């Protein structure tokens, strides 16, 4: 089964501002980089999704420092970067076409934020026919919410996703 790794919205905004620091962000970047390394060893394409706001005043407006993909990510010139303007990485982007053209059947998800762009994209992928997807434990995160702290949000969403929208595997499980 041909796979692709999709890393969603790991952008500088989550590292430049303490109020937006992702839960366990240092370990998160290390874990995502290990996942990227495994993907490259198996010739699995790596796709970075980059949220791009349309308002010049927003932190994630194209070209701003906070909009950049995080400098700590292990990126390569061969990686695909797809900009999105909504929570769903498939909405009005080239993602679906790219996956279909490359005959990708299984998606491996990582990134941020759990309850927003990651959740929306995971559910959309399932509805679009990608129904055997994976999430490696501790490769996605968020910030504290008004009702649940970040760890609670992560656990809640993983419980919903698991064996419905994707399979969650331990970090020591190789791709």
UniProtKB/TrEMBL annotation:
One of its GO terms (molecular function) is hydrolase activity. It comes from the Bacteria. Residues 4-138 form the Isochorismatase-like domain. This is Cysteine hydrolase. Belongs to the isochorismatase family. Pfam families: Isochorismatase. Keywords: Hydrolase.
